[in-house]
Amino acid sequence: MDNASEAAGPNLSVVIPVFNEEENLAALQERLRRVLDGAGYDWEIIYVDDGSRDRSWEILCSFNQQDHRVRLVRFNRNYGQHMAVFAGMERSKGQVVVTLDADLQNPPEDIPKLVDKIDEGYDVVGGWREHRQDSWLRTLPSAIVNRLTSRVTGVDLKDYGCMLRAYRRQVVEAMNACEEASSFIPALANSFANSVAEIPVGHAQRGGGQSKYGLYRLLKLHFDLMTGFSVLPIQFVSFMGLIIALVGVGFGAFLFVRRLVVGPELEGVFTLFAILFTFVGLQIFCVGLIGEYVGRIYREVRKRPRYLVREMRG
């Protein structure tokens, strides 16, 4: 990357959300500093403490005291990974912004590869965890979501879940202008990018601590993705409703003719109950999906702050 910055400030910003990562931060900072200095970047690191309850904030403050290029943002409570990334991006100054998790699963040593790809002319460069060190309970749902996301956004990528990504300044500014209460950053960035690339990056076992993405958070993230970037799900529901209605009418006509020919019978009562429960289940799912859209509208019209900053340093 050209070291001549287009504006006052660093030419590379690294944004890192942090939530209870005290075991990994020292190693992460040392590896980051070594990589960024070794590549000759004019850099800054923005750590966003997403309401940690361990010693993460104290450790981050020590980084800030040792190096003025380390800047800190602290939330008053936990708002989630994507809100933390938004907070870091809004305060970043670099011409290229790289996002990275604090758990050391994605190696900081791959950052120059992303920046080099940006220098080829791409607006967004995503990392693809080629040899992912996760169980099939995480990789299988991730593969399904990646295919769904590619369909919804129209940008075919292998790994939307990898946080190691690089964004050109213009894309970051466009995302900062959005005021959505919830969003999925990789998909949002792709909607503003003229050109998107994906390169293989490393992936390792978590350095320490526990994963912050349980089943509930994964489901919430997927609903945000489906309802935040496309009306395709609700159109699909409408289409399925029409099909089910036509099937129901046809089945009702069949039962009427059968009653005229065969007469009253009770043998099929359990089959009817099974069909009824299937249709009721589909209806409940459809109502829930519609409710998700209504809920998003409700959150947006309230115009409440997406997060509250408790403290900043640097």
UniProtKB/TrEMBL annotation:
Biological process, per Gene Ontology: lipopolysaccharide biosynthetic process
TM stretches of this protein: 236-257, 269-294
MF (Gene Ontology): undecaprenyl-phosphate 4-deoxy-4-formamido-L-arabinose transferase activity
Gene Ontology cellular-component annotations: plasma membrane
Segments forming domain Glycosyltransferase 2-like: 13-173
Cited Gene3D superfamilies: Spore Coat Polysaccharide Biosynthesis Protein SpsA, Chain A
Domain of life: Bacteria
Xref: Pfam families: Glycos_transf_2
Name listed for the protein in its UniProt record: Glycosyl transferase family 2
Organism: Desulfarculus baarsii (strain ATCC 33931 / DSM 2075 / LMG 7858 / VKM B-1802 / 2st14)
